[in-house]
Write a structure and sequence with these properties.
This protein has one domain. The chain is 64% helix and 0% strand. The longest helix is centred in the middle third of the chain and has 15 residues. The protein is globular.
């Protein structure tokens, strides 16, 4: 199973992630593991992605989705594909399909394969170029 699948299923929550260096590397991998080519993102996007993941999954801080989502949105806007996918899932779960599609398309353009799968489930073909 890919790392992103382990995170999304919650299986990595039992792993001791207290070392910030590991969290940083973990976030980099979330942004690039589904790609054969590493996505180039800004340092700001990466740091926001780390902070988002920390609050979203309770890594070294209490899990707090309400606090995570504005941070995830900033990371997504800055180009972090992991955060873009999270935003799509968040909006889809909240019933805002239009916003979900927007974020899934952004993530798909950045090579996020599970975003492409989500778009296909919604009946949208995504031509990635």
């Amino acid at each position: 199973m890919r790392l992103t699948g382990l995170v999304e299923s919650g299986e990595l929550l039992s792993v001791d992630m207290r070392n910030l260096t590991l969290v940083f590397l973990f976030s980099l991998c979330l942004s690039a593991c589904d790609n054969e080519e590493v996505q180039v993102v800004t340092e700001e996007a990466t740091l926001l992605d780390v902070e988002c993941a920390m609050h979203l999954y309770g890594l070294d801080v209490p899990q707090d989705i309400e606090k995570a989502m504005p941070i995830c949105e900033k990371a997504a806007e800055a180009g972090a594909q992991g955060a873009q996918y999270v935003m799509g899932v968040y909006f889809l779960g909240g019933g805002n399909e239009e916003a979900a599609i927007y974020w899934f398309k952004q993530a798909a353009k950045n090579g996020r394969t599970d975003a492409i799968e989500q778009l296909e489930k919604l009946g949208i073909k995504q031509d990635i170029q």
